Amino acid sequence: MSTVANLLARKQQLLERLENDPGSNERDEIERLLAKIETALMWLESNDPVEEGGPL
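^ that's the sequence the OP posted. Answer follows.
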């Protein structure tokens, strides 16, 4: 599984945990992890050589 697929799967798991109405400490931790995943996804997208017209 690719890095992006792993990040997206982890993001989905965290979003499902948010739906279960976690306590405030757990919610804060989940939101912190989601922010890190979003940052990683944006970084990977911006450094994707295929999108920049580079070689496959």
